[in-house]
């Protein structure tokens, strides 16, 4: 080993030596330098090689060569007084091939300026010998296809004031601790390394490079904290460290002598506020903080940056009112979109910014009729105001904005007719007016006259469309994306016949019926990627093979139609395939297993039959989402995930699957959601699923699971992230040990106001800018009624153990699950008292303990449950006074019936006031040993203050089995209205 190392070292020093030797070897004569130039040209110039305008320089080389050869007159060559070549600019000169260390280039040792940018040196490495050109002041190798390590030797070019290696994404710089390539280049004025893979922190020593004027380090995989003193470099004019998501930092206080003109930290981890002292950078022209993590208000001092031409604060977490920016008269681009900003009512200043080319104010809570203020901005080419509450009509003067190429007013409350409004926007490429309240009849032709149009979205207005059939090829724009969802279409618009380059076609929620005609995709076969046709009345295809030949199709969504027969086989490229809620029959075609790119397969709610084909095991390893719910599949489910599976959601519910739960599920290490509900699985509780690190939802309802649940909360079973578990309607039995739930950490916390929900993202749709979100749904039974939750909020936490044969006491570890919203233990044989510590579960909205054998009183602590809207303790052996006040005033008889000893409102049995409660938790005190001091104090108060009596032997005569279930559930459902919908999709009932 040692000798190998030795050898290795020797080789390195030998190379070193050779480089040094070669560099100092010989000083060339003028003629020799000239022929070195020619040699370089001969080796690397390739006329056919792409680089527009390139060979002009070499033209002059050729011409002169036939005369005498005065290389110093060549285009791109500069000589010193003494006749040495000191400058060589061969940028964009169709140079190609590999530069190696024997290149004649390195003979030009007097070079001070070398520019080889915009050529293609075919994955050449930068030869270490570049270090021989010691006189270099300026080196530009940008955009020339260099790859590999930047040689350490380059650190010797200490005279460099300009270094540009940007645009060579294969290039890497390995930092060797203290020895950094840039370390001794203290004269640097311009440092451009964008898209070079630096994969390191920004070196601190740059803080001392007092000559630096330009720093461009975009997309360099920079990490850690950016040394903010760099912003204070005395000569700094230009800094761009954008597109480094792992680079953190903040803006410093700025001094008033800064020369900065250009400042971009977009798409980084930069955070904090914009300091008021920003006004000191009064030369600033370009300022972008886009897509970072800034917060706080936009300081009014921004107004002083009167030189600003570009301002983007988009996609941060800024809050508050936007100050008037009326003084930024030079602005050509203003982007404030997607923050938590408010435009307020003083938006009038916008119309002062008459130089604006681009205005983006999406999602700014604009509740105003703002469009009349925009019409003066006649230079606008981009106008995006999506996701606000802008109302009113589009004023006719809006037609002044003839330069517009992008107009996005989607998701607002605009109204009125739009018939011929858009005709004047001849340059429009992108038009989105979807999600408004426009009305009236529109001739689709009025859009089709916009020849440049590529993206058109009219989704979801109350428009009716008139389509005509007399289109010919040459009058139509070539659309790439067309959104006509929820547009009351009765048939496929016929102009689609002439669309050759469609990429995305969105026709969901219309009333199109019958078969899909072949011409829909005939012309866009090579381009169509997204095809959405949900919620129509489609019954099938004219010809399946047309569908199959869409060679780029990635998303196919034909859910909620009336498709018959077996599912259409998608092309190999398919990623997202949803044909749920149709009338599909037959078995799963094995061809589906061959879809190598498939990530989502949703066949739910059809009438498909048979066993899962054995080839399905291939799919389990590529899919993220597999939904087979509500079909008639049967047989065992075997061979699911293997190591490396990406599966996140698996729903096999409401079929006739049987057998044991396949142990292969333990390899689904990304699984978040598993539902096996309503099948005939027969097994003990799959406690081993607890090792799945991501599992959040586990639904085993209505199967034949049996036996005692053992091993919960051991090291092997953790369920750390579990939030929803429903194992109701099985034959589980035995006691649940007190510690059963102690590792269910996700249930112990709650996050107010988090309205995010579970889903998977599919990132293949460029135009939507955000990834395509597939939201998980689930069916959860509550009191015998199935409800479909179209979203599963990340704060929803529920346990349902009902309808089993559990016995023993309610496990104490429940008291720590502070996030619980719904707890159902009904229809078991639980005994002992109701834990008073359930009063700690402040989020609880529904508590069902009915039909057990619980005894003792209803603990007063349950009065602390401020959100409790459903309580059911009926049919137990409870006694004593029903707690009074707060939520308890809202429960009726049905909550308490079937308990012999309960008294007080709402029951008609009065309590005997004189008797003091004797039935305190009668069980072993140890269980309550972990009560918090405050709980103990509560007990004391209750002891003193409550004179509830124990009524023994009172018989409640009326065992009315009221159908309370439904009505209670409705109340429960109502609060969650938004996320609950009836079982079947009933869009048009
Ligand atoms: C920079 O210069 C110092 C002093 O001459 C030298 O010791 C060091 O090795 C040099 N660093 C690099 C990376 O060349
Ligand atoms: C950022 O950091 C994460 C975690 O260390 C890493 O996986 C990711 O590749 C980094 N991204 C970039 C662009 O450097």
Beta-strand fraction estimate: 15-25%
Helix content: under 10%
Small molecules in complex: 2-acetamido-2-deoxy-beta-D-glucopyranose
Structural class: mainly beta
Outline, from the CA principal axes? globular
Low-confidence stretches: 1-21, 914-989
How does the major sheet shape up?
32 strands, mixed
Average per-residue pLDDT, rounded, comes to 83
Total number of beta strands: 64
- How many H/I helical runs? 9
The radius of gyration computed from the alpha-carbon positions, rounded to a whole number of angstroms, is 36 Å
Give the end-to-end Cα distance, rounded to a whole number of Å.
80 Å
Protein name: Leucine-rich repeat-containing N-terminal plant-type domain-containing protein
Signal peptide: 1-17
Membrane topology: Single-pass type I membrane protein
Subcellular location: Cell membrane
Q: How are the SSEs ordered, and which strands pair?
A:
Layout: H1 2-24, H2 30-44, H3 56-66, E1 77-79, E2 85-89, E3 113-115, E4 138-140, E5 147-149, E6 162-164, E7 170-172, E8 190-192, E9 214-216, E10 224-225, E11 238-240, E12 244-249, E13 262-264, E14 268-272, E15 286-288, E16 293-296, E17 310-312, E18 317-321, E19 333-335, E20 340-342, E21 358-360, E22 382-384, E23 391-393, E24 406-408, E25 413-416, E26 430-432, E27 437-443, H4 445-448, E28 455-457, E29 462-466, E30 481-483, E31 504-506, E32 513-516, H5 519-522, E33 530-532, E34 537-541, H6 544-548, E35 555-557, E36 564-565, E37 576-578, E38 583-584, E39 600-602, E40 609-610, H7 616-622, E41 625-627, E42 632-635, E43 649-651, E44 656-659, E45 673-675, E46 680-681, E47 697-699, E48 706-708, E49 724-726, E50 731-735, E51 759-762, E52 772-775, E53 778-782, E54 785-789, E55 798-800, E56 805-809, E57 822-824, E58 829-832, E59 846-848, E60 853-856, E61 870-872, E62 877-881, E63 901-903, H8 933-945, H9 964-975, E64 980-981
Parallel strand pairs: 2-3, 3-4, 4-6, 5-7, 6-8, 8-9, 9-11, 10-12, 11-13, 12-14, 13-15, 14-16, 15-17, 16-18, 17-19, 18-20, 19-21, 21-22, 22-24, 23-25, 24-26, 25-27, 26-28, 27-29, 28-30, 30-31, 31-33, 32-34, 33-35, 35-37, 36-38, 37-39, 39-41, 40-42, 41-43, 42-44, 43-45, 44-46, 45-47, 47-49, ...
Antiparallel strand pairs: 1-2, 51-52, 53-54, 54-64
Membrane topology: Single-pass type I membrane protein
Subcellular location: Cell membrane
GO cellular component, one term: plasma membrane
């Amino acid at each position: 080993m040692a000798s190998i190392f030795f050898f290795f070292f020797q080789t390195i020093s030998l190379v070193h030596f050779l480089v040094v030797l070669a560099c100092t070897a010989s000083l060339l004569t003028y003629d020799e330098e000239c022929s070195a130039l020619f040699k370089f040209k001969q080796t690397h110039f390739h006329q056919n090689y792409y680089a527009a305008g390139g060979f002009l320089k070499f033209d002059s080389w050729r011409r002169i060569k036939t005369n005498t050869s005065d290389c110093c007159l060549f285009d791109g060559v500069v000589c010193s007084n003494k006749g040495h070549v000191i400058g060589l600019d061969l940028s964009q000169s169709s140079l190609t091939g590999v530069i190696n260390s024997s290149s004649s280039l390195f003979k030009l040792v007097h070079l001070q300026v070398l520019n080889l940018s915009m050529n293609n040196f075919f994955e050449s490495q930068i030869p270490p010998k570049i270090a021989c050109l010691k006189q270099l002041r300026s080196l530009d190798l940008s955009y020339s296809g260099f790859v590999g390590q930047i040689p350490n030797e380059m650190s010797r070019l200490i005279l460099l004031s300009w270094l540009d290696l940007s645009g060579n994404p294969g290039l890497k710089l390995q930092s060797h601790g203290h020895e950094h390539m840039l370390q001794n280049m203290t004269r640097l004025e311009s440092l451009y390394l964008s898209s070079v893979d630096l994969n390191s922190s920004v070196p601190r020593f740059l803080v001392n490079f007092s000559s630096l004027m330009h720093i461009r380090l975009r997309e360099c995989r920079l990490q850690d904290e950016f040394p903010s003193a760099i912003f204070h470099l005395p000569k700094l004019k230009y800094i761009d460290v954008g597109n480094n998501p792992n680079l953190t930092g903040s803006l410093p206080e700025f001094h008033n002598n800064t020369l900065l003109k250009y400042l971009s930290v977009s798409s980084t981890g930069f955070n904090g506020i914009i300091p008021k002292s920003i006004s000191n950078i009064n030369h600033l022209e370009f300022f972008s903080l886009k897509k970072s993590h800034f917060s706080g208000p936009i300081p009014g001092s921004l107004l002083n940056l009167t030189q600003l031409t570009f301002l983007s604060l988009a996609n941060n977490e800024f809050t508050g009112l936007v100050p008037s920016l009326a003084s930024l008269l030079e602005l050509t681009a203003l982007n404030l979109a997607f923050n938590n900003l408010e435009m307020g009512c003083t938006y009038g200043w916008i119309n002062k910014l008459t130089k604006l080319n681009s205005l983006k104010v999406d999602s700014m809570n604009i509740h105003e009729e703002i469009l009349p203020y925009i019409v003066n901005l006649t230079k606008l080419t981009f106008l995006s105001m999506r996701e606000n509450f802008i109302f009113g009509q589009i004023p006719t003067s809006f037609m002044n904005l003839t330069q517009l190429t992008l107009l996005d007013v989607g998701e607002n409350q605009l109204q009125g007719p739009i018939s011929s409004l858009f005709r004047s926007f001849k340059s429009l490429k992108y038009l989105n007016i979807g999600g408004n309240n426009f009305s009236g009849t529109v001739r689709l032709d009025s859009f089709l006259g916009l020849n440049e149009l590529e993206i058109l979205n009219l989704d979801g207005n109350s428009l009716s469309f008139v389509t005509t059939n007399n289109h010919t090829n040459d009058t139509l724009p070539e659309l790439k994306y067309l959104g006509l969802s929820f547009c009351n279409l009765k048939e496929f618009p016929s102009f689609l016949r002439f669309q050759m380059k469609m990429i995305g076609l969105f026709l969901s929620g219309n009333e199109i019926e019958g078969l899909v005609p072949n011409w829909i995709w005939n012309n866009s076969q090579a381009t169509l990627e997204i095809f959405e046709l949900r919620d129509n009345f489609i019954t099938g295809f004219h010809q399946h093979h047309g569908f199959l030949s869409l060679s780029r199709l990635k998303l196919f969504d034909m859910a909620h139609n009336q498709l018959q027969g077996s599912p259409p086989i998608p092309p190999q490229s398919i990623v997202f395939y949803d044909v749920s809620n149709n009338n599909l029959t037959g078995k799963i075609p094995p061809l589906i297993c061959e879809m190598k790119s498939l990530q989502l397969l949703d066949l739910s709610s059809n009438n498909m039959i048979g066993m899962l084909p054995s080839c399905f095991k291939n799919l389990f390893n590529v899919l993220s989402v597999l939904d087979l719910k509500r079909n008639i599949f049967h047989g065992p489910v075997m061979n699911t995930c293997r190591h490396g599976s990406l599966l996140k959601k698996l729903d096999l519910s409401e079929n006739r699957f049987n057998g044991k739960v396949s142990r292969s599920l333990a390899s689904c290490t990304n699984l978040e959601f598993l539902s096996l509900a309503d099948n005939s699985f027969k097994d003990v509780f799959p406690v081993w699923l607890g090792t799945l690190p991501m599992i959040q939802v586990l639904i085993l309802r209505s199967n034949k699971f049996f036996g005692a649940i053992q091993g919960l909360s051991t090291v092997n079973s953790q369920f750390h992230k579990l939030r929803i578990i429903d194992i109701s309607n099985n034959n589980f039995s035995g006691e649940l040990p007190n510690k059963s739930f102690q590792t269910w950490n996700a249930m112990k916390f709650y996050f107010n106001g988090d309205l995010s929900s579970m889903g998977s993202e599919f990132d293949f749709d460029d135009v939507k800018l955000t990834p395509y979100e597939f939201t998980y749904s689930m069916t959860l039974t509550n009191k015998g009624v199935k409800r479909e939750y179209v979203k599963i909020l990340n704060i929803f936490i529920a346990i349902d153990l009902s309808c089993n044969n559990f016995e023993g006491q309610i496990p104490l570890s429940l008291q720590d699950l502070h996030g619980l919203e719904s707890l159902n233990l009904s229809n078991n044989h639980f005994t002992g008292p109701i834990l008073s510590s359930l009063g700690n579960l402040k989020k609880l909205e529904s508590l069902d303990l009915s039909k057990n054998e619980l005894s003792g009183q209803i603990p007063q602590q349950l009065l602390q449950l401020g959100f409790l809207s459903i309580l059911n303790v009926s049919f137990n052996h409870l006694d004593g006074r029903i707690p009074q006040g707060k939520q308890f005033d809202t429960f009726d008889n049905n909550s308490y019936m079937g308990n012999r000893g309960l008294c007080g409102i709402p029951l008609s049995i009065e309590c005997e006031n004189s008797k003091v409660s004797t039935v305190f938790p009668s069980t072993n005190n140890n269980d309550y040993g972990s009560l918090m001091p405050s709980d103990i104090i509560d007990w004391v108060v209750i002891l003193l203050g409550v004179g509830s009596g124990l009524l023994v032997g009172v018989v409640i005569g009326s065992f009315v089995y009221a159908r309370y279930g439904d009505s209670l559930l409705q109340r429960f459902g109502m609060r969650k209205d938004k996320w609950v919908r009836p079982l079947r999709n009933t869009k048009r009932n």
